[in-house]
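Below is a concrete protein record.
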Amino acid sequence: MKKGFIYIFLSAILFSTMEIALKQAAHDFNSIQITFMRFLIGSIILMPLAIKHLRARNVSLEKRHFTFFALTGLIMVVISMSLFQISIIYGKASIVAILFSCNPIFIIPLAHFLLNEKITKQVLLSLMISLIGIVCIINPFQLSHALSILLALLSAFAFAIYGVIGSKGSKKNGFDGVVLSSFSFLMGSLEMFVLMLISRVPLVSSWLTNHGLETFSNIPIIHGISWHSLPSLIYVGVFVTGFGFAFYFLAMEATNVTTASMVFFIKPALSPIFALILIHEAITINTIIGIVLILAGSTITLLTNKTPKLAKRKTQRRRHHRPIRHAH
């Protein structure tokens, strides 16, 4: 369990800088292009470790496994992360970070129905407190960037589906988070590459442009890569995409789906702080209140998952030290 919370912390740190880094990368790359490149890089970084994990588990990949990876890659890379990247362009990075962090609200019910994970009163209380905190940060009374908000929520919902399907499929096939992430990212990148090639067909490109979908028209593949843009590409590809998601799924395995989703309760608390430090976005009073509530909700989840373990250990100790009564 302790290892699981270390994974959660590392993932939360990397994810909390994601929107800021992608906002900067958007100046040099097309939204679909940067999504394709960062997930391709992430899959390559994780591949040696994924192969090592497969060998350790004595698992051989079959055709049906790649069908599964094609599905998870489609949901994660092509759908969720494309919507996510576009939402960053049309809105503030910190707001998108907070909205994307709503995905546990989708994950926990899905995990309950698909994975039979129990939803306790404490988990519901944690969700309610964290949701109130997120609403405080968003401040719906002064809501703007409606398109960005809609896209971010759709991205969060797709990511929740990916998380639950990925967890269920991994357990069924004997995978771990590194294997799932690496091959899902690879298949998703290949699927996106095919779509990028299609977007460059003159007839398709012209149709997309005429219908106001320039972002999806004639998508560049390597254009924009330079010494100036390389550091941001490496950061979002290697660290955020490669290590960030690996830590998240390793946390899911070390704990469970519900506990691992704490990453997305911690993230909206850290993202505004990083935004203040790195791009000088001011932290408002309602943001501070929201951060406190989100941390309170995460603490409840943390204590809820530790209490049963402690109780179980105490019971085992009592049984172990129980005096043996001899018959007379």
Observations:
- The chain is about 80% helix and 0% strand.
- The first helix runs from residue 2 to 16.
- The radius of gyration is 21 Å.
- Residues 76 and 162 are 6 Å apart (CA to CA).
